């Protein structure tokens, strides 16, 4: 077997996910065992395999994104070669392994979701990431723009809305108290209040929280025809706008307190619903 690239390369940082995966793809192509059409299915199956192994053998309730994806890639490497013609897998290119508690690239939401799907316990408070780095799976700009275009068309942004469902935070806002809370209690309650479909994340500039971003959890497949989902995004967006406006006017309630007040009023008004058809 002749390879066009060496098995190990000092140019590749094994902890750099993009570089590592590109190197693996190049290697598999050189070996003649790369099948792009089966990569997505293989990835999903390896996620299941790695998550189960971590849960059953390591007994960990959470791991870092870096650790989880590294071991998914390693499992895919092994499986790809095991399924090849000669069934022999070369040695995994890197000897070192990330620490499962390394959160430098955030919490592994793939592993956390697997635990939720299989009714395994998760610590909601621990899954929320402390300021200033937001490790909630942020909704992509492309998907937010898609939903924005459906709802608002070419309506321009302004000084508050600096992008599709992205809000500039007022200077001096008490972010810890109003959005995180002690032990991330406020943000934990926010996540439970809005449910798993919608996510609120934030950006950090110069070690300060700069903007809030609202979107759909990337774990859910939402199309341009998912209008009920789009309207849910708009409803929460309007609540966020009203909350920030109230904050600038002197309101001191957290985002959760504001939403609970608004939802209580909405539920109260539901008593007047007419069921006649």
TrEMBL record:
Domain of life: Eukaryota
Designated name of the protein: Uncharacterized protein
